Amino acid sequence: MQGFMALASRPHPNSPRKGEGLRPYRNAKEPQVMHILIIGAAGMVGRKLTERLVRDGALGGKTITRATLHDIVEPPVPAGAPFAVKTLASDFSQPGEAEKLVAERPDVIFHLAAIVSGEAEADFDKGYRINLDGTRYLFDAVRAIEGYVPRLVFTSSIAVFGAPFPDAIGDEFFTTPLTSYGAQKAIGELLLADYTRRGFFDGIGIRLPTICVRPGKPNKAASGFFSNIIREPLSGIEAVLPVGEDVRHWHASPRSAVGFLIHAATIEGEKVGPRRNLTMPGLSVTVGEQLEALRRIAGDKAVALVRHEPDPGIMKIVAGWPRNFDASRALSLGFKAEASFDDIIRVHIEDELGGKLGV
């Protein structure tokens, strides 16, 4: 927390002068999109976002001429990009690193960098250093550049909500996180809203559902099993289920996550208004319903590969997570997700398995 406290007292050239009063948030006139910065570009969502931008060659109908891809490890250079690409590796939570990233004044910044829920819970200091201090360094680096007001898209999480929950969490429900990760994201949301209100940047925060089915290998996220019990059986590999089949959760596919980011980067700020953090649409299903969708698509043989092995630690974390949402506001603003878990599985088969099952 030392870095956060140090930042709080740092003066900035864009701070209002004595007697000037607070500046209302403003939505700067959108510039011609020339330069995209993705922080967290080596992660799964970052890679898929990069692939989408490379495929489209434009954002919001405006030509992309260059992109900067950053992460703690150097992101891969996308093949066939129609624009210039620079890749960088550093720890953006270290003093001075965020300033380097925004020095060239990118027009749109996607802030995807974070350590995941399980790791943030296991390592308190690291979670706050990356997920909070790193975010504040980035926001203040933008704020320090006079006259620079980029669109900044911040990936938050449904972990900002804590029990007890209503049947469906609406847009008016308060944020009372029950994990360190959720607390870090909730603070980031408050900072984003206030910095946007003060006119330091034009921010949109999107609370992502649990992304399922995640490709690749399992990570340290406590939610990883939601993907594992689908991904591994589809490839003929055994998977472990650490919770009961009655556990209900909120999901969207990686393809939808990229769609959320693209829409958040291009939506008119006036339509969003001062409440700049939005719960993304998704699908509420139980683990049992996930397995039944797997059965419909891949058969009994695939479901038989899921081994029930209760994990009290995972069960405790999951018990405090939200289960269902009414994302009316995001839907009214044009954000879209899948209509069934069968659709989520089909997206994984199409995007990751070449349309073929391994089971």
TrEMBL record:
**Protein name per UniProt:** Nucleoside-diphosphate-sugar epimerase
* Residue ranges of every copy of the NAD-dependent epimerase/dehydratase domain listed in the record: 36-250
Keyword NADP assigned = yes
Alphabetized InterPro entries for the sequence: DenD, Epimerase_deHydtase, NAD(P)-bd_dom_sf
Region annotated Disordered sits at: 1-24
Lineage: superkingdom: Bacteria
Keyword set, alphabetical order: Carbohydrate metabolism, NADP
Coiled-coil region list:
none
Keyword match Cytoplasm: no
Q: List all membrane-crossing ranges.
A: none
